[in-house]
């Protein structure tokens, strides 16, 4: 029991939900809370209260009523006269439900003529073929009596649908809104954030990736006069992107390109949210094709180790900075706990453990020419038989230049030379990276002053 309690405390200590939640729209926090509820890291009653609190600022009234009933199962659904605190809250929800339904009907009626226009097949063709919003607007105005105030009505309806939890309706109307408004429209930016959130919540990863890239282009090309604002927008984008990167087939490559090799995003991570290094590190460890990036990542982890550490970043430090194999093995066990309890990383567990073992093995082999299998098994948390089978498979799949001496229970390493061509590439990359770091360190004082941020969507 004591051990379980200790593990639970550790899990709570490593849980990043409250840090992440500051940079996510409230609707995006619900999946994280559902996940925590299943994992049982926190008191369920407290989680339900948190959920109800989040719901109070949305129009998802039925969901809020269900949560209320789970929180107060012994209370009857109140009659209108009751003034007690929890009951009063429920009555507020009953009343709010009527208001929401009324408002929805009103907006539906307002939007009906607009929706009819968009249902016309000819209009759909125009939307597909016209790249210019102004041109499209003129076409609609000329042929369908479309007016500029209709664009705002469309946005208000989409926003209301989103607040009610109807993400498919929101995504559809926000798409129409985006193709019609110029980039300097007062709701243009909000509309992009809302569309991305809707696609994430429906788990449509291809459109979500397109929306993510579109938003990134707008932020990077933006004319925000306030640099802090740009930094905040990038920080939001980094957090929202995790949903996409850990679900889209190309995500594991793209997260490395964006977080590690785009200076402005690496700068945002180091300045505003070093905890994101957990996700970057996991992506690198799980990405067999991107071995060369390890060196660059380890440099960043070392630089940031005074502001952020967790078992995943410490695992790489143990292995590649301190060459501490026992420490790495201990951290790997902790990594397992972190991964199992992290909403974004739980699906990476097997791949992570397999590759992390490989890293320990390769690093160990680089230092020793002849290794005892039983000692290796210990370092890898395996039995000697499992370790031998694992090494045989590595040799068979040409991922390892080595021979096994079963009689002596040894692995004898072959020699591996690095080609001069590869060395030049590595050095050039290293130089570019160091220049980036120099620039970053000059910039780093910016943005520390004010880290408060408001949800970009609505």
Structure notes:
This protein has 458 residues and is mainly α. It contains 23 helices and three strands. The protein has a three-stranded antiparallel β-sheet with strand order 1-3-2. Helix 19 packs antiparallel against helix 20 (349-367). The longest helix is centred in the first third of the chain and has 35 residues, at 85-119. It is globular and about 85 Å long. The model is unreliable at 79-83 and 447-453 (pLDDT under 50).
Descriptive keywords:
mainly alpha, single chain, 3-stranded antiparallel sheet, 458 residues
- For the termini, the CA-CA separation is 45 Å
Mean pLDDT: 82
Main sheet record: 3 strands, antiparallel
Question: How many strands?
Answer: 3
Strand fraction equals under 5%
Coarse shape: globular
Largest sheet, spatial ordering of strands: 1-3-2
Instruction: From the alpha carbons, calculate the radius of gyration and give it in angstroms.
Output: 27 Å
Encode the helix/strand succession as letters.
HHHHHHHHHHHHHHHHHHHHEHHEEH
Low-confidence stretches: 79-83, 447-453
The percent range for helix content is over 70%
Number of helices: 23
């Amino acid at each position: 029991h004591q051990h379980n309690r200790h593990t639970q405390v550790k899990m709570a200590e490593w849980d990043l939900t409250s840090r992440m939640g500051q940079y996510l729209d409230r609707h995006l926090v619900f999946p994280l809370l559902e996940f925590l509820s299943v994992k049982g890291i926190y008191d369920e009653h407290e989680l339900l209260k948190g959920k109800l609190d989040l719901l109070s600022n949305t129009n998802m009234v039925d969901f809020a009523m269900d949560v209320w009933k789970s929180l107060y199962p012994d209370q009857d659904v109140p009659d209108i006269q009751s003034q007690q605190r929890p009951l009063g809250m429920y009555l507020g929800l009953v009343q709010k439900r009527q208001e929401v339904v009324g408002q929805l009907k009103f907006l539906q009626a307002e939007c009906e003529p607009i929706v009819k226009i968009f249902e016309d097949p000819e209009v759909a063709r125009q939307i597909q073929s016209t790249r210019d919003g102004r041109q499209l607007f003129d076409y609609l105005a000329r042929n369908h009596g479309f007016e500029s105030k209709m664009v705002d009505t469309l946005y208000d309806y989409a926003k209301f649908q989103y607040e009610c939890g109807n993400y498919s309706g929101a995504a559809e109307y926000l798409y129409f809104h985006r193709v019609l408004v110029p980039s300097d429209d007062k709701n243009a930016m909000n509309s992009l954030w809302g569309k991305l959130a809707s696609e994430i919540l429906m788990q449509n990863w291809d459109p979500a990736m397109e929306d993510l890239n579109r938003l990134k282009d707008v932020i990077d090309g933006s004319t925000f006069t306030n640099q802090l604002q740009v930094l905040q927008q990038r920080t939001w984008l980094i957090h929202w992107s995790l949903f996409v990167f850990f679900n889209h087939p190309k995500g594991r490559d793209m997260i490395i390109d964006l977080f590690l090799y785009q200076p402005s995003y690496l700068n945002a991570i180091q300045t505003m949210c070093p905890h994101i290094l957990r996700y970057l590190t996991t992506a690198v460890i799980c990405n067999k094709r991107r071995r060369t990036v390890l060196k660059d990542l380890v440099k960043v982890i070392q630089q940031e180790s005074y502001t952020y550490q967790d078992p995943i970043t410490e695992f790489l430090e143990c292995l590649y900075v301190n060459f501490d194999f026992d420490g790495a093995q201990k951290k790997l066990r902790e990594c397992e706990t972190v991964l199992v309890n992290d909403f974004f990383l739980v699906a990476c567990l097997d791949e992570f453990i397999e590759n992390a073992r490989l890293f320990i093995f390769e690093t160990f082999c680089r230092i020793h020419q002849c290794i005892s299998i039983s000692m290796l098994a210990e370092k890898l948390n395996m039995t000697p038989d499992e370790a031998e089978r694992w090494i045989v498979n590595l040799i068979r799949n040409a991922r390892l230049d080595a021979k096994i001496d079963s009689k002596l229970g040894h692995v004898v390493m072959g020699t591996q030379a690095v080609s001069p061509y590869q060395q030049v590439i590595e050095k050039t990359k290293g130089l570019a990276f160091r220049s980036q770091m120099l620039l970053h360190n000059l910039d780093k004082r910016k943005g520390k002053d004010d880290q408060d941020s408001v949800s970009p969507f609505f």
